[in-house]
């Protein structure tokens, strides 16, 4: 690990000022479960590390008067997963968190940090590999013709096909959640779906955050669909593993008709991926197996697999079908 200065501000304004002043030379650390790996593996070497753990961000988990779920950015993954309001009103969020990492990691990791964790592309995580545009801009991409089993089939470019690693982000995108941001330019709110950028020819620029801008909270609107929701994660081993393919599905059924459906997938895109085609095939249709099958058939629309992950489109269709059958009561 290279030397750096550690700052422990006591308020949000001071934390923002450090990042705004130093730009690229400053990194933030919350629970530290990803950042510590990046530092010790020599992937990041900030001049200044700013800790967000001393009351800078709140960790409240609360429901607003209209049922909106508000998560302070410092809320721990385990606390959010176990909260009765989350389990009852937003089961897909609780399930996605419980299928992430391990109890020890979830007890430390914050939900703000979860959204901004870096990719698990093995070339990115190995400083011995010289060609990784995300880690060292302009050096090429070892994964394009290398080992790309875990990598993206949607949203990639000729410069990067790294998957976004967060499970938690997938239901947030499906449910239309928003992030509250605070930075040198003041406060703003964004859909979680707009927080991350596609790699294009600048894969090292991963989000729309300005220097010094911090996530302060996540807001998830209440909906009937959110109450009937489910997260399915397909991975190489049953725990402590990232998704090969995952599906967040929320369905509002009225009689025998689907009034509204929300579907997003993880493990397949360079950012969490909303499945608009699947949603359109479900909305207004009969809630039966025939509908689920024809909707799931659209799950891999636009997918561009490489030889190492050519299995993903079929796995995507099967995962969406299984998640729909679970949530729609048609096992
Ligand atoms: C062994 C292991 C297995 C894992 N498995 C999974 C998994 O299956 N699924 C999954 O989704 N995740 C998994 N993770 C990732 C884990 O969920 C993340 O490391 C964790 O959520 C990051 O949160 P943190 O608070 O520790 O963030 P940190 O490590 O402190 O920070 C992560 C990044 O976010 C930035 N940051 C943190 N908070 C803020 C904020 N409020 N505003 C702006 N920037 C901020 C930091 O600067 C840093 O760039 C795994 C991690 C490990 C170590
Ligand atoms: S896919 Fe992205 S992160 Fe992985 S090696 Fe290529 S540029 Fe680097």
UniProtKB/TrEMBL annotation:
The keyword Cell wall biogenesis/degradation does not apply. The keyword RNA-binding does not apply. Gene3D superfamilies: 3.30.465.10, CO dehydrogenase flavoprotein, C-terminal domain, Uridine Diphospho-n-acetylenolpyruvylglucosamine Reductase, domain 2. It comes from the Bacteria. Keywords: Oxidoreductase. Residues 1-225 form the FAD-binding PCMH-type domain. It holds the Pfam family CO_deh_flav_C. This is FAD binding domain-containing protein. It comes from Marinactinospora rubrisoli.
């Amino acid at each position: 690990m290279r030397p750096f200065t550690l700052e422990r501000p006591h308020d949000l304004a001071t934390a923002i000022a450090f990042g705004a002043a130093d730009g690229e030379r400053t990194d933030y650390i919350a629970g530290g479960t990803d950042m510590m790996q990046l530092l010790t593996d020599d992937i990041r070497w900030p001049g200044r590390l700013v800790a967000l753990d001393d009351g800078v961000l709140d960790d409240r988990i609360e429901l607003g008067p209209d049922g909106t779920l508000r998560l302070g950015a410092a809320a721990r993954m385990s606390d959010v997963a176990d909260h009765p309001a989350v389990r009852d009103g937003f089961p897909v969020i609780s399930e996605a968190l419980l299928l992430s990492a391990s109890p020890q990691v979830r007890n430390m990791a914050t939900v703000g940090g979860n959204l901004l964790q870096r990719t698990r592309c093995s070339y990115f995580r190995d400083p011995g590999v010289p060609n990784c545009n995300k880690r060292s801009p302009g050096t090429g991409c070892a994964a394009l013709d290398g080992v790309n089993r875990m990598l993206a089939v949607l949203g990639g470019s000729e410069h990067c096909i790294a998957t976004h690693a967060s499970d938690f982000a997938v239901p947030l995108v499906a449910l239309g959640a928003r992030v509250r941001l605070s930075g040198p330019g003041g406060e703003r709110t964004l859909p979680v779906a707009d927080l991350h950028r596609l790699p294009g020819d600048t894969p090292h620029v991963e989000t729309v955050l300005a220097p010094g801008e911090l996530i302060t909270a996540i807001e998830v609107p209440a909906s009937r669909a959110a109450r009937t929701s489910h997260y399915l994660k397909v991975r190489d081993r049953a725990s402590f593993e990232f998704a090969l393919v995952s599906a967040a599905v929320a369905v509002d059924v009225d009689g025998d008709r689907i009034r509204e459906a929300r579907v997003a997938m993880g493990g397949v895109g360079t950012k969490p991926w909303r499945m608009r085609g699947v949603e359109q095939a479900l909305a207004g249709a009969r809630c039966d197996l025939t509908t689920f099958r024809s909707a799931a058939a659209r799950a891999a629309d636009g997918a561009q697999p490489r030889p190492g992950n050519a299995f993903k489109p079929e796995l995507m269709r099967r995962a969406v079908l299984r998640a729909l059958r679970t949530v729609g009561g048609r096992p």
